[in-house]
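Service request form, structural biology core

Requester: graduate student, group of Dr. S.
Request type: structure prediction, single chain
Budget code: on file
Notes: please return the result as structure tokens.

Sequence provided:
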Amino acid sequence: MSLRTNLATRPFYNERAVQAALVAVAVVVVAATVFNVWQLVSLTTRDRTLGAESSAADARAQTLRQQIAPARSGLDSARLVEVAAAVREANAAIDARTFSWTAVLNWLETRLPSDVRIASITPRADTDGRFVLAFKIEGEGVEAIDRFLSALDGTGRFDELLVRQERETEDGTIEATIEGYYRATPAPAPAVPAAGAGR
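Core staff response, request fulfilled:
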């Protein structure tokens, strides 16, 4: 009894379906890349505009500071409040110059949890002239939002981080708004006691 085998045949593969899937994935990757490049160019342009505005604000702030000392004695309280508001505005513009979109975007690229998506980032100055960053994010659950909050806190660049709004959408994702005071330079890391200290 002999076993007959036809070595000339090969199994049928659905190559068209595989090629169509690869093309679809490639289209999605290209679209995402184009969107990211567009966002980066847009944010970089905005960063440059803010830099130019803050340079002008530097000069304005310097002028206001020089005018405050001699003028303070002759000002009534209403005028003094007006000048103080102008100084806060100038200081806020100076703080805006130290804010770097590049630094924030680089940080997000390396530390953003995979189950969190950022919808928007909004910088602003509060009434005291402190610089605030607000993140609108979407996460796959409350734990994802907590991981993002911890990641922000771990940069050392934020104070008083708070979740301002949080709601669950119909598809089960969590939408949240997180705000915190932003520092241009990170806070120093706490000192770690040397091994054997205190013995």
